Amino acid sequence: MRVAIAGAGAVGRSIAGELLENGHEVLLVDKAPTAISVERVPLAEWLLADACEITSLDEAALQRCNVVIAATGDDKVNLVVSLLAKTEYGVPRVVARVNNPKNEWLFNESWGVDVAVSTPRLMSALVEEAVSVGDLVRLLRFSHGDANLVELTLPPESALAGTQVGDVAWPEDTSLVTIIRGTRVLTPSQEETLEAGDELLFVAAQAREEQLEDLLSVRRES
């Protein structure tokens, strides 16, 4: 898989290193000469260019990329790169970094963004996930379909504790994708029984999040 990363700062280089270790082809693009540090990621291709310029993206052969990652520290740049990648080059998957949470609402399919990753939001979510039981935590937003990756730890008092996955009337536009139980990662089968303390990961439409939280947090009647 060929991946182009706009922004060769610490974030971009870190992403490039991970992708290269997984056997992917990576191109790093940055307009700042000081950011071109070939020795730090020697297996990557490097391009000194402005990723907001069509001529630069032509040189980068963006049309050959399977994924473009807009990872600069400037939200305006990331939006422009995302829009050009999707509309001008038809890149199948565009991932964009959100630096300021106030701008998160802009990072959607109208700007060519398939997945928006907000570092501040993600860090906040991980803190919430560590301390909250019974509360829904939004981990990641997918632009297409207005869906989110959300997590909820099943509280001991939930009526669903001891219930098989196949017997639960899940809300529409909601899919249970993983159960984390202690050190185990379980693929939820219809026969899998939910246990108190399970970390449940869902892909769910935003409009269904409140309904999902209510379902999982229902207390047993005394």
Report on this structure.
This protein is an alpha/beta fold and 222 residues long. It folds into two domains: 2-118, Rossmann fold (3-Layer(aba) Sandwich), CATH 3.40.50; 132-216, Regulator of K+ conductance, C-terminal domain (Alpha-Beta Plaits). Helix content is 24%, strand content 27%. The protein has helices at residues 10-21, 54-59, 75-87, 119-131, 209-217; strands at residues 2-6, 25-30, 45-48, 67-70, 93-98, 115-118, 137-142, 147-153, 174-181, 184-186, 199-205. The protein has an eleven-stranded mixed beta sheet with strand order 3-2-1-4-5-6-7-8-11-9-10, sandwiched between helices. 32% of the residues are buried.
TL;DR of this structure?
The chain is an alpha/beta fold and 222 residues long. The protein folds into 2 domains: 2-118, Rossmann fold (3-Layer(aba) Sandwich), CATH 3.40.50.720; 132-216, Alpha-Beta Plaits, CATH 3.30.70.
The count of strands amounts to 11
Number of domains: 2
Strand content: 25-35%
- Could you name the CATH topology of the largest domain? Rossmann fold
CATH top level of the largest domain is Alpha Beta
Considering DSSP H and I runs of 4 or more, what fraction of the residues is helical?
10-25%
InterPro entries: K_uptake_TrkA, NAD(P)-bd_dom_sf, RCK_C, RCK_C_sf, RCK_N, Trk_Ktr_HKT_K-transport
Pfam family, one: TrkA_N
Keywords: Ion transport, NAD, Potassium, Potassium transport, Transport
Protein name: Trk system potassium uptake protein TrkA
